[in-house]
Amino acid sequence: MNIIITSNIREEVLSYLHRSTTQPLLLHGDASFILKELPDQSIDMAMTSPPYWQKRQYSHGGIGLEIDYTDYIQNLCHIIQELYRVLKPTGSFWLNIDDSYHHKRLLGIPWRIVFEMTDKQGWILRNSVIWHKIKGLFRESCGNKNCMFLRKPLKFSVESCQNF
């Protein structure tokens, strides 16, 4: 059974990090708040499918409802920068993100986000995988989705190889 945490995030994560369990710890809540509670370099892997820009109307507001797509990209990248802080140097990140149209033109949002991440935050893009989704609750949820695989740059030195 998975452990799902919704409150006392910092204490629960610190406790979990000192256990010898292989059971995953799932954190549920607003990423912009949860990530601030996590210690630096404490996460091995993160995967997310954030709300897509202008695709859903959420009753509680939140990311994806920005008027301008550039604000959406900046807001999402602000959260991703916190993720970079908590990800271990050997950690990995999967971002499942869809594109949007505005005034009948495809905006290239997945690539704009990735370029922001690689150019300004230091991420390394390792792969872009196309998820060809053929079933979904809504017709517009089907189609091709971008799944971006990123990591932090690996620190390499000649001295680290001398022990092999």
TrEMBL record:
Q: A Gene Ontology molecular-function term?
A: N-methyltransferase activity
Its domain of life reads Bacteria
Q: What SUPFAM superfamilies does the entry give?
A: S-adenosyl-L-methionine-dependent methyltransferases
Q: Name one Pfam family in it.
A: N6_N4_Mtase
Q: Which residues form the DNA methylase N-4/N-6 domain?
A: 43-141
The UniProt entry's GO biological process terms, in alphabetical order, are: DNA restriction-modification system; methylation
Q: Does the keyword Methyltransferase apply?
A: yes
- What is catalyzed by this enzyme? a 2'-deoxycytidine in DNA + S-adenosyl-L-methionine = an N(4)-methyl-2'-deoxycytidine in DNA + S-adenosyl-L-homocysteine + H(+)
Residue ranges annotated as coiled coil are none
Question: Which EC number(s) does UniProt give?
Answer: 2.1.1.-
Keyword Methyltransferase present in the record's keywords: the answer is: yes
Q: Which PROSITE patterns match?
A: N4_MTASE
Q: What class of enzyme is it?
A: transferase
Q: Which UniProt keywords apply?
A: DNA-binding, Methyltransferase, Restriction system, S-adenosyl-L-methionine, Transferase
Q: Which family does it belong to?
A: Belongs to the N(4)/N(6)-methyltransferase family. N(4) subfamily.
The molecule here is called: Methyltransferase
